[in-house]
């Protein structure tokens, strides 16, 4: 009889832990919300036009992204995989690619396919 009660106790304890352990993890995530940090602000120029690129990251380092204005429109682009430099893209209309001291703007907007290269502006 004692062995049977012990087995029931173990089963109940296991079920209890399986139910409440994930709830504790969810609560801990809510207690520590993600924060956005401005990592860098760079100014690029092509001689006649400047682009200010602000590079941000989440506090858990799960995402890097840039914010900038290009041709009067505000963009926020997430970082994507790149073999060289840092590339940010919405996967559709626009990509920016930071390589060394250059910024390449790759524009895929229909009727405005105009890629441009900007150089880091000396302060």
TrEMBL record:
All residue ranges annotated as the C-type lysozyme inhibitor domain in the record: 51-101
The keyword rRNA-binding belongs to this UniProt entry's keyword annotation: no
SUPFAM superfamilies, per database record: YdhA-like (SSF141488)
InterPro entries, per the entry: MliC, MliC_sf
Gene3D superfamilies per record: 2.40.128.200
Keywords assigned: Lipoprotein, Membrane, Palmitate, Signal
Full protein name: C-type lysozyme inhibitor domain-containing protein
Organism of this sequence: Francisella uliginis
Organismal lineage: Bacteria, Pseudomonadati, Pseudomonadota, Gammaproteobacteria, Thiotrichales
